[in-house]
TrEMBL record:
One of its GO terms (molecular function) is thiamine pyrophosphate binding. Keywords: Signal. GO terms for cellular component: outer membrane-bounded periplasmic space. This is Iron ABC transporter substrate-binding protein. Gene3D superfamilies: Periplasmic binding protein-like II. GO terms for biological process: thiamine transport. It comes from Bellilinea caldifistulae.
Amino acid sequence: MVMTACQPAAPAGEQGETDPLVKAAKEEGMLTVIALPHDWCNYGEAIETFKAKYGLQVNELNPDAGSADEIEAIKANKDNKGPQAPDVIDVGFGYGPQLVEEKLTMPYKVSTWDTIPDEVKHPDGYWYGDYYGVLAFEVNKDVVQNVPQDWADLLKPEYKGQVALAGDPRASAQAQMSIMAAALANGGTLDDVTPGLEFFKKLNDAGNFVPVIAKQATIAKGETPVVMRWDYNALADKNALAGNPEIEVVIPQSGVIAGVYLQAISAYAPHPNAAKLWMEFLYSDEGQLIWLKGGCHPIRYNDMVQRGVIPQELNDALPPAELYAKAVFPTVEQINNAKQLIAEKWMEVVGADVK
C-alpha cells in the first residue's frame, strides 16, 4: 500500500506491524540518507535505533556532504532509483525556498505536525525544521587561561593568534552566521551585518584572528583554541575529547543567534514510504530526544518541555537554558542577504583568506 503524500500515519512512535506505513516501508526494505555524520546531533544512534525498530536497511551516502551537495544529489538522480539516490535530506534553513521552487521535495505532514512551530515549516509540508543550535565559543582550556564570555572579550591582547571560525565566511553558513552573531553584539541587526565584518576586521588587525578553518583536531592541538561554532558540534567535541584537552562551551552574553536545519523527502525518493516512516520516527518524542542527547535542540523542544517529557539529565548536559532564551532566529531572507554581503565584502573589509 502506498500512502498519499500528506496522509498522516499513526501517532509517531506508535506505529506497529499492522500500521499501513510500516507495512509499506518494510516492503521497500531500505532507506537512503545523505550527509549524516554519526557524531552530528547523535545521528549514529538515530540510525541504529530506526534500523532496530523497523528492521529496515539504511544506506548512508557521503556523511561529510554539505547542503548544496545533498540538493545536487537529488537533481543528479532524478531518473535513478538506485543506491545513489537519496530518499531524505537534512539541509540548512536557507535552502527551503529552493526546494519548493525547483520542485525537489514531496509534501508530507508528520503526525506531530501541529507541535512544529509555524515559522519553521512549509505550510504544505514540503520541508520542516528538525533541530536548531546557537553559535557558541568552543574553548580549549588547556591553552586558554581565561575563557572568554562575550564577543568583546575576543579583542583582548591575551587572545592573540587564538580565535578562529569553523569555515570560510565566503562559503560556509556556519561562519556566516558567526559574523551575523558578532553583528548583533556590536550594534548591528539581522538586516545590517556590516558591524560583524568590522568586528572581524578589528580581530584580524589585532592579530587575534587565525585564518584557518577550525575543526576538532586544530582545537585539540591548540592551533585554534577559541572557535565559533554550533553549540552541538562544540558539545560533541567536548564529549569526544573527554578532557584531553578540556573543552568549555560558552554561549556568549550577547549576540546569540540560532540556526535551524530542515528535513525533507525527495520528490524522486526510491523508497518514499521508508522516508515517511523515518520522518515519523525523527519527529516522535523518541527521535527528538535522540537529537537532544546529541546536544541539538529538537524543533519540538518547547512542546516537550511543556509536557514534562524531557529527562532532567539531558537538560543538565546543556548550557543554561536562560542563555538560549536570548537566541534570535533570522528569516530565510535575512540569512540569504547576509550570506551575499559577507561573501562579497569579507576580503575587502577583513582581508583574511580563510583556508
